[in-house]
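Re: the 163-residue chain
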Amino acid sequence: MIETADLAATAMPKSYAESMPGFGVILRAEGIPPLPGARHEHLLWLPTNRRVKNDVRDAADLADLLRMGRLPEAWIAPPETRELRELVRYRAKLVAIRSGLKAQIHAVLAKAGVLIAVSDLFGVTGRQRLAKVPLGPAYAERIRSLLELIDILDSHQALGRRC
């Protein structure tokens, strides 16, 4: 239970409000409206030129701004938008991993001295030509393994496109 004797509102950094949405739910259940403050870079205009920067000082500065009515409110995306952003970040991560795997295949082929003249090495024609390339057992196993990983990532990215 939160003591609400003199507490009319709360102020928190925007990063807290976005990363811990449950905190705002608890405050609203207690009847306290959470007011997300500005991002940390927007707090640079504060009149205090202090050397010490920590959560205690930031909390004191946010409380002072709230008390004076000078706290700039930050927009926090609704839960649906935050969820879509998570999916976009996840898909971008999968794409980056897949690109790295494709680069590794190109590196193995370069190390083996093989050049496959095709516009898309990972399309149907490119994979057919890749399967016919005579490589040593270690190189062939590595390429086979990398292609399997690429196929797995492609199936996960296809799920992300449907959302």
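The longest helix spans residues 79-112.
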